[in-house]
Amino acid sequence: MKRFLLVCLLFVFLLGGRNVFALTAQEILDEVEARRTQFTTQKTVGKIILIDASGKEETREMVMYLKDEGDDKTSVIFRFLSPADVKGVTLLSLRNGEKIYLYMPAYKKVRLIAGSSKSEKFMGTDFSYDDLSAGYGKEDYESALQGEDEANYYLELTPKKSDSKYGRLIMVVDKEKFYFKKIEFFDASGNLWKVLEVHEIREKEDGSIQILKLSLKDVKENHATIMEASSIEEDIPLPEDFFSVRTIQRPTL
Amino acid sequence: MVKQSLGVAIVGVLFLFGLSAGALEIRGDVTARGSYSFPEGDFDYGIVVNLSSTVSLSEKYFGNAELLLKYQDENNIRPFRIREISLQGVQAPWEATDFRVGLLEMTWGASDIMSPVDVLNPRPFSRSLSRTMFEEKIPVPALDFEWYLSDTWSLEFFYQPRFVAHFIPEFVEKQSLVFSLLPFGVVPERTDVVITKEEPSVGFGSPIWALRARGSLGSFDIALSYIEGYFLSAYPKETVISVLPEGSWNVQVRSGYPRRSILGLEFQGTIAGVEGLTLRGDVAWVVPERWVNMVMLPQGETISVPIFDVPYWKVSLGLDYSWNNTYASIAYLLGNLWEEGEKVSPYGYVHVDWQSKDGKWKPFANWVTSLEDGSAVWVFGTEYKPKDNWNISFAYTVSQGAPESKLGSIGEEVSLEVKYSF
Known about the structure:
The complex is a heterodimer of chains A (253) and B (422). With 253 residues, chain A is of the alpha+beta class. Chain A contains 4 helices and 13 strands. Chain A has one domain (24-248): Clam (outer membrane lipoprotein receptor (LolB), chain A), CATH 2.50.20.10. In chain A, strands 6-5-4-3-2-1-13-12-11-10-9-8-7 form a 13-stranded antiparallel sheet, with helices on one face. In chain A, β1 and β2 (57-70) form a beta hairpin. The longest helix of chain A is centred in the first third of the chain and has 20 residues, at 2-21. The radius of gyration of chain A is 21 Å and the shape is globular. Chain B is mainly β. Chain B has one domain. Chain B has an 18-stranded antiparallel β-barrel. Chain B is globular, with a radius of gyration of 23 Å. Chain A binds chain B through residues 52-53, 58, 60, 83-85, 87, 99, 107-109, 111-117, 120-121, 124, 221, 223, 240-241, 243-246, 250-252, and chain B through 27, 29, 54, 56, 62, 64, 88, 90, 98, 105-107, 135, 148, 150-152, 154, 216, 219, 221, 268-270, 275-278, 280, 320-323, 325, 357-359, 387-391, 421-422.
């Protein structure tokens, strides 16, 4: 009898084990955030490939500096290194776009960009300024676990802000390494708008994940952007006033 | 000539340095443009080559050179121009300072069009009303030194030990002078004009100088500036009109460059609760030296014509808004680039452009109107970017108003510009 009970318990455990230890959507997102590589400063050198509807590609080389300002705020300096007609064009975004400046070397002038530009496309790419600075935390999204298979979790994220340009997001999270492999962005009418896919990652010794290559396709416009990092340096020493209007006017960064 | 030879020598040094360092990187653009004026039935064309290079001399010091080569079918004056040759220090010579010294092109002002505080550089002559024309400047020998008091506030000092004036071809200057003398009875086609210009005595001990403090206040970036210098156009101070025995007219003009002080305010910022709206503007309070043109008539009578008497305002105030790949800007201007003193008059300016989803097309419309006489200029056109490094721009310009009005004489024109960057 005792042995029968044990077998029953084991059977119940095996059947229900998945439910007993299943993660909630928020726990999955928290784990994704925890596995995201942590840094105070980061320098990325790489390229952006723009692909139009006919499949024609244009490549732009870039260098980007990031600084974690705390409170989920990031400051960014982004400079194009090529091609010639945009070389040296530099963007400074302070604390998730509280202020955005653009420096155009041809005009020798720093221009403050209006706030609405945050939802506009960034320098011909499929990313908006918001896309570049956004996280997918509980402050901004309601999350629900839609399903899972052997490899992935499938989450549905619904923006909390009523003025969000997206109606909902479907996020595919890798079960083993806890990074998002794919995000589908739907508009307010429920139509698929953009698809973001991660193509290459690097797993660091501490288990954190660095994304090396990703693509964002605008399904409506049949236009895609690939971002590929050739080098990433983290926690590099930068002067306290590096993320400033002064810096973006320099000949070299 | 001496200045150009010096410039070529400096470029040569930079070039040789770059070759020896294996680091010279020249970039630039070639722009071919053509325009057809309907009233005159005249086709104009030209080509401009811009070349620039920055040589890294060390981690903190850089050599900059920018040159312009130009050919146009008419008035091909100054086909070779230096836009900048300078030594630049970044966090040099001290951590909190940056500087540039050499032949400099300065850009001050926050407004997008005709800033009244962007007056440190003289400008070359052009009959065109294109954006390129508004951006063209003549470099000045100067030191520009900026001291960063914090990451948002700085104090800038500009020092120019040699005077450089706007470049206006002599025939244009004579033409406008003769027209200004029409009330005295001169007949333009039978008038010979001789202009003698006296440049101000600017030197190392008596320079043109300026100070600017700039920084952030809330959502606004502001700058306060003070410029002590001279007008860059010559104004007559003594005009002798005589009638020669054969019935023609002779006008002897002695002109100079009046002193001026300019107190300026620049600002750009957003307004809380109105997302997408940016307010930009420049305001200048100009205090000119009192300047009178003494006109001696053939009858021996002398008339004094006041040119500068009292201080005056020049303003460029604008609002811009962007949404759904569309950008709109509206501005109020008090005075254009060339209007000074009592000639300063108000203008309204509207610009709208829209960028196609693939980023290749950018149709635009501009409207400028004189709020004094109602004359106006419309510009409709589009920019097209077939591929990276190529830009094509087409525009149709038409003006309305009497020929003698502020903007009515501009006429009707189509223009095409093709630019390749390398």
